[in-house]
Amino acid sequence: MIERIDELRSEAEAAIAAADSTAALEELRVRYLGRKAELPNLLRGVAQLPPEQRGQVGRAANQARQALEGLIETRTDELEASELDTRLAQDRIDLTLPGEPPQPIGRLHLLTATWRELEDVFVGLGFTVVEGPEVETVHYNFDALNHSATHPARDRTDTFYIRPPEASGRSQDAGLDAPRSYPSDVVLRTHTSPMQIRAMEAHPPPLYVVIPGRTYRRDNDATHTPMFHQVEGLAVDEDITLADLKGTLLAFARAVFGAERDVRLRPHFFPFTEPSVEVDVSCFQCNGTGYLKDGSRCNICKGEGWLEILGAGEVDPNVYSYVDDDRYDPEKVQGFAWGLGIERVAMLKHGVTDLRLFYDNDLRFLEQFG
C-alpha cells in the first residue's frame, strides 16, 4: 500500500507541475484530494489495516496529502499571478476613448444661459461687460446712490450686513462671547448698482457698461430668494435723453422676447434716477391683447397685455457728485441706468412659476431647458 501511495504522490506532483491554468489545477485537486479520490480513501482505510502497518501507512498517506496540498497552493499562487497579468494586458482600457454608452455632455443652467443671452444682447448694442464685488460698503451700495439715511432698504430686516472680524471676540468684562458694537458699513450688495459709481470712478465718459452678477436680500418666497441675479446698465454721454433709454430697452425686449414686442414707460421713483420709470414689455404670449386665441385670459400677463420687466431712469445729477472726477459734471454729461432680474426674464420667457425651482437642483426641471 505504501508503494501505491508513492505512485499516487509522484503522479500528482508531475500533473500539478504541468498544470497551465487554475481551472486545470482545481480539477487535479478534486482528482487526487477530493472526497472520492484514491489517496483520501486509502487514508480512511488505515483503520482496517493490521496494527503493525497502520502507523507506517497512515504517516505516508498524511505526508503525501500535505505535500500535494502545499504544491497545489504554491502552484495556484503562481498561476493566478500569471493569469492576472494576462488579463490586465488584454483588458487594458484606453481612458481617452468616449464612454460606452455615450453620456450626455451636459448643458448650461437656465440662469446661466439667460445671463449669457442678456450679455450678448447688450454687447451687441455697444455696451461693455464689467463686474464688481459682491461684498460692498454702505457708501457704494446706498450713500453714493442717493439713498436717504432712512431708506427702508438700509434696514437690517432687508439687507445682509457683514460683521467685520475685529467686531467679534470674547468680552473681557462679561467673560462671555458677546457681540461688540461695530460699524455697519459692510453689506452683501443688494443690487449691482454700486458698480455705477465704481465704473465712473475708473473710466471717463463716454461710458456704456452692463454689470451682471449675484445680489442678496432678506427675501424668500415663490418670487424672491435670498440670493438672486441682476443685470445693471449704465450709459453716460453728452445729450443722453429718456428717448435713448427707451430705444435701448426696446432693442433688448425685441431681441429677448420677439421682434413684435413693444415697451412702455410708467412713472416711478428710484433714489438714483430722476426721472424714474417702470418698464413694461408687451406680452409675448397674447401679443399684447390680454387674451389667448381661445378667448381665455392670458395666464402670463393676467389679461393686462403688458409684463413689468425692469426699473430704469435718467441718472440723478446728485449721483455724479459722488464721483471724484470733474469730467462727470451734470452740466456737461447725462446718462441713463436700468436694472433687471435675470430670474425674472427666465421666469417670463420660459413660464416658470416659482423662483425657487432654479435652485432646487431637480434634474426633472433643469433638463427641460436645452
Topology of this protein?
Elements: H1 2-18, H2 22-33, H3 38-44, H4 51-90, H5 110-124, E1 128-129, E2 135-137, H6 138-141, E3 170-171, E4 176-177, E5 186-188, H7 194-202, E6 207-216, E7 227-237, H8 242-257, E8 263-270, E9 273-282, E10 306-315, H9 317-320, E11 334-341, H10 342-350, H11 363-366
Parallel strand pairs: 1-6
Antiparallel strand pairs: 2-5, 3-4, 6-7, 7-11, 8-9, 9-10, 10-11
Helix pairs in contact: 1-4, 2-4, 3-4, 5-8, 5-10
Strand fraction: 15-25%
Supply the number of helical segments: 11
What is the SS-derived class?
alpha+beta
Mean pLDDT: 87
CATH topology of the largest domain: BirA Bifunctional Protein, domain 2
Task: Report the principal-axis shape.
Answer: elongated
- What's the alpha carbon Rg, rounded to whole Å? 41 Å
The CATH class of the largest domain turns out to be Alpha Beta
Corresponding CATH superfamily of the largest domain: Bira Bifunctional Protein, Domain 2
End-to-end separation in angstroms reads 83 Å
- Which CATH architecture of the largest domain would you pick? 2-Layer Sandwich
